[in-house]
Queue: 2 jobs
Job 1
Amino acid sequence: KKNDMVGMKDAIEGFIADYSSNPKIVFDMATVLGNLGYDTRLEEILKDLNKKYYYYPAHYRLANLYKSQGNSAKSKELLLENEDFFKNDFSFYENIGNYLFNSAEYTESKIYYDKALKIYPNSFTTQEKIGDILIQQKNQSEALAYYNKSLIHNTGNYELRQKIKNIAVKQDIFDKTVQKDQYEFINTKRGKKFGESVSLNFLYDES
């Protein structure tokens, strides 16, 4: 009901006023306002938090708010602010990678995942994400290498094991079917009958 919504908003605004010096509480209350549909008020609070504290969760949430409003350029510009300050921060680069990945900007997202891995090379979540990107780019062999690296640090991940299995099966089928030396195969079979059996062979010329 409208009266209930107004009453709830007033109560949340009261919390924000009472705990204005606590950015986490203010951010949490602002998020609730956003979930209730008060996007304009949410934006105001997030901007204020960034101005007072540079509170990164608010910074990231504001970037996503701009994205949801269709302003991707402003969103990305905000995310990349102060990159020099965060150049040794793994989470900074992983968050940007995640943002770009979720926007299907795979090539650019890999750039930031690579930067994240330079800071923390054993991040199994980042390794798996890069594997997913390489799958999108039709680079299954390299994707498999990243998936295997990720699995070393995340052995209980069933979905990751399934990804590895699916790639391995596809590669195994191709390796068993394709002829390594196609032209030698053609020469040995030229003019010969195959009998009643039917064979399917792939001829792949890289030239």
Job 2
Amino acid sequence: KALFRELLENDTTVVTSEDIYKMFPDLNENAVQAKIKRCLRGGELLRLYKGVYAVNTSYSHKAVAEEQVAQAIDKQSYLSGLAALRFHNLIPEVVNFKTFFGTKNANINASNIRFEIKKVDPELTSLGVEEVKVADNTFRVADPVRAMFDTFLGLKMSPKTRNQICAYLRIEDEDSERIDWSKASRYARRFKSDLADSIAHAMATEA
């Protein structure tokens, strides 16, 4: 169980097949896969997605963050929608099911880890997205304006004013003032859709 010992020693919670190959450069692919399969059979590793595994928390005693798993599945993925608005402390509700956007579709429902990745145009995966570090986790998250675009585009919903947007999302007036609404028109041009233009117009209309 050299693999499992090394993962524990490094405080690893999420690992990919690629990571494991790098840990054992002198072994061929079959030998490395055999190590992975032994850890899966023994319950030390849990398969979350093709080539992505979590260390069983019963052994590591460390929670597995959805953000880590999403990054392991798709390095271009970013947290968005209501979960991103919650991350920015703009909405009051705790969001239990997180939505990420990236270059592939994925639905994860394993070992108490539940989230989805929705596929978007790869050229849009950096628009209004920043990299952040929370505790030991580094991941990507949409800024508030991008998160709102992703929300309303996904719903195919066209609010009429900024007040309607805030009311629908339950964003308070004082929190609305922290949002850089001026980004809306620039973002809309990148989306190249009538609905995005309509959403940007609503963001610019304060009444």
